[in-house]
């Protein structure tokens, strides 16, 4: 049997364990590998999110002028955005944008403890 294909995205984080806790507690990821404080990865569906701390080889390979989180973000589809917003607000999390509606659906941004953005998206039905 072949292992399932996963798409991997790397996020640079200041605190690997805080990032693992954020993604597993609030966004439905499952911890896969945890070699904190250097590295961990979490999985949700076909997405493997690589969380690289300052001591990881992935973080050390980043150019010096790339010190801040970029405008890229992972995109998580949810079935009830209003319920997700309420749940995350009740957990004390802050959003990085207002709720935006567009032709394809509605979205809102949240940031992980290192400032990396996550888009929660509910497609138009």
From TrEMBL:
Superkingdom, taxonomy of origin: Bacteria
Record keyword Metal-binding present: yes
Keywords of the record: Metal-binding
Domain VOC residues, every copy: 5-123
InterPro entries to which the protein is assigned, alphabetical: Glyas_Bleomycin-R_OHBP_Dase, Glyas_Fos-R_dOase_dom, MMCE/EMCE_epimerase, VOC_core
GO biological process, any: L-methylmalonyl-CoA metabolic process
One Pfam family, short name: Glyoxalase
GO molecular function: metal ion binding; methylmalonyl-CoA epimerase activity
Name the record gives this protein: VOC family protein
